[in-house]
């Protein structure tokens, strides 16, 4: 069966299951259903691995149904620009895809779930997981792992650079099925995930390279071109890699609110939710755009503070500039001052924050250049997380204790054990 036809059928299969769920009491004669689910980042690896593995398994076990599901709400699909780019190249439209919110909230207990490119599902799905195909190091401590059924088959192989390599191994191990779309998608994914086999990045092993070479041979079969010179192959891979990186960074089709959502993290504590957005431009330039305030309010929802990290890479020179913005949504916002202080004091590493040449009073926010351009969100996130946790603890203390108690707990208890 052709790959596009398979995707079309998956949609109607899900429709049949949803219908049958409504018709309770009647004897339904449904086939065993497997959901093949990628991870929540829905990067190219996750999306392609889910789509292609479901296709391969569906051809091998024709008496069962396999549905590939992208683990994001449908509305977020435009944000995954490199996924959309690659699927468009294979003429796969969003209409042909299934997303997390196409599934019912509660899955029937006789449905099986196959996790690809991750191994920690939501608590409600965990008891349904029958198989895991992943290349992330096993998160042994994670409590959800305890909920996996004992029969769950785990293939977790952290040495490979891409989960698509694990899928390609299964795809190429047998002669059927064959699909030029599947070969193309797996090939592109491995090239992107391994940073095009960059020796400096060291994100690949021999198995990734072997699969890419075999997939290239597959793609050449059936075309007129004969085996290329090694140099041509390298050039084609480089062009593909650059095309995918450009597609991932392409925000030209997105609204400002979508641009904020594209690379955002939510810092959650028990009572607060603090959004932290990353932008592919300086925040100082973003706030000058028409409707920036509207986009910020839409994105921030009901949180009190929004943190935005901007990064601009100058075309040509590749020179990096960074800036940081703290924007209060309903001033006064005492949390803003605490975060500002913590970022200024940060020594792991020092961010070297300075005022912009032209200051702004946009939404009463605080805008700073970050002269240490080596420092990334990875460094800033824990600082903000710590402030938020301390803030929440202090809030709780003032709510639940009287002043004397707060004073008492400020002292470190002396236990005399050392
Ligand atoms: Mn991956």
Automatic annotation (TrEMBL):
It holds the Pfam family DHHA2. It comes from the Eukaryota. Gene3D superfamilies: DHHA2 domain, inorganic pyrophosphatase (n-terminal core). GO terms for cellular component: cytoplasm. One of its GO terms (molecular function) is exopolyphosphatase activity. SUPFAM superfamilies: DHH phosphoesterases. InterPro entries: DHH_sf, DHHA2, DHHA2_dom_sf. Residues 241-388 form the DHHA2 domain. Belongs to the PPase class C family. Prune subfamily. This is Exopolyphosphatase PRUNE1. The lineage of its organism: Eukaryota, Metazoa, Ecdysozoa, Arthropoda, Hexapoda. The gene is LOC117577577.
